[in-house]
């Protein structure tokens, strides 16, 4: 009897301690863009490095192009444990009540890639990722995708050219305010629905980094592309905190190393991929590319900077000012 009681006690103690992960660890990594985008390539790179650094103990299964879950489904799937890793765009964290991440949607908030890196790779970025932990989510890294351009079926050279256009946006109050500031009608829509919506004329245009536009073939149904660099699109790689904390400490260290390497790779290739995608759009001959001059860019900037003040109550005025200080941004420069 005493032996049996001791055995039961040991079993209970083992169960309470959590899994031992003696077998292969499978991580399902779901995302909504094509494999040949910067995010798609970085996810595959992470899978390769995770396998190599753990000597095959960890197998990362990457599911691109919304093959598992669409935009609005993937966060719930992570919380339910149906997937273990995502790389959602930064605006999507507002559904968790963390609207601070909509900072990244503010138009012209980052003058260039260096200004962006001072935020994502510094204390502000670390603090933002930390805000996810009370929601049961572990933020692992920021990945770039690039600066956005407008596309439509009429030329856009000034804010007035946007008036009346139905423009697809991802779910973001900041992006909604941005389009309204330009006189356009914002239409929130899942990324996987954008090409058919553009093709059918449900929406007139959209905004994207060039790699997203090209890999989703949007240039085939958009006659004009305006290189405006008016906003930024990036991602946060996340996992379930419960899942992450349950991993053996040695495996976590190996995955952290794999993520550091994948992040360096992702942020390095994002710019290169967008340059190549723009040239591919140009070579396709289906889309007229409009390059704004300095005066035209200044006109868009003047029209869009009031969005910063409008959204300060939602994002946090202290957070916005801290970004201004970190990057040297001058909100009075119109």
Automatic annotation (TrEMBL):
The UniProt record lists the keyword Repressor: no
Record-linked Pfam families: DctP (PF03480)
Keywords: Signal, Transport
Cellular component GO terms, alphabetical: outer membrane-bounded periplasmic space
InterPro entries linked to this entry: DctP_fam (IPR018389), TRAP_DctP (IPR004682), TRAP_DctP_sf (IPR038404)
Organism domain of life: Bacteria
GO terms classed as biological process: C4-dicarboxylate transport; transmembrane transport
Family: Belongs to the bacterial solute-binding protein 7 family.
Protein name: DctP family TRAP transporter solute-binding subunit
Organism annotation: Azoarcus taiwanensis
């Amino acid at each position: 009897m005493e032996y049996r009681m001791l055995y039961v006690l040991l079993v209970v103690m083992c169960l309470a301690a959590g899994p031992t992960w003696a077998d292969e660890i499978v991580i399902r990594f779901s995302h909504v863009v094509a494999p040949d985008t910067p995010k798609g390539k970085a996810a595959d790179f992470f899978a390769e490095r995770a396998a190599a650094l753990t000597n095959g103990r960890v197998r990362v299964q990457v599911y691109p192009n919304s093959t598992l879950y669409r935009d609005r489904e993937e966060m719930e799937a992570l919380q339910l444990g149906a997937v273990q890793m995502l790389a959602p765009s930064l605006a999507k964290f507002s559904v968790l009540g963390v609207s601070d991440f909509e900072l990244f949607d503010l138009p012209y908030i980052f003058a260039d890639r260096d200004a962006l890196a001072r935020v994502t790779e510094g204390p502000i970025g670390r603090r933002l990722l930390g805000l996810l932990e009370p929601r049961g989510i572990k933020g692992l890294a920021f990945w770039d995708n690039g600066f956005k351009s407008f596309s439509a079926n009429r030329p856009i050279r000034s804010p007035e050219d946007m008036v009346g256009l139905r423009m697809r946006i991802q779910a973001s109050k900041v992006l909604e305010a941005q389009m309204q500031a330009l006189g356009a009608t914002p239409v929130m829509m899942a990324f996987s629905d954008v090409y058919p919506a553009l093709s059918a004329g449900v929406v007139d245009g959209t905004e994207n980094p060039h790699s997203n536009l090209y890999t989703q073939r949007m240039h085939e149904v958009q006659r004009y592309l305006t290189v405006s660099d008016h906003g930024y699109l990036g991602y946060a790689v996340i996992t379930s905190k419960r899942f992450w904390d349950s991993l053996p400490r040695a495996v976590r260290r190996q995955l952290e190393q794999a993520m550091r390497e994948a992040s360096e790779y992702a942020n390095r290739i994002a710019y290169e991929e967008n340059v190549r995608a723009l040239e591919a759009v140009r070579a396709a001959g289906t889309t007229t590319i409009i390059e704004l001059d300095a005066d035209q860019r200044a006109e868009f900037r003047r029209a869009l900077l009031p969005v910063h003040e409008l959204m300060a109550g939602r994002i946090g005025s202290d957070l916005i000012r801290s970004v201004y200080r970190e990057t040297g941004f001058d909100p009075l420069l119109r």
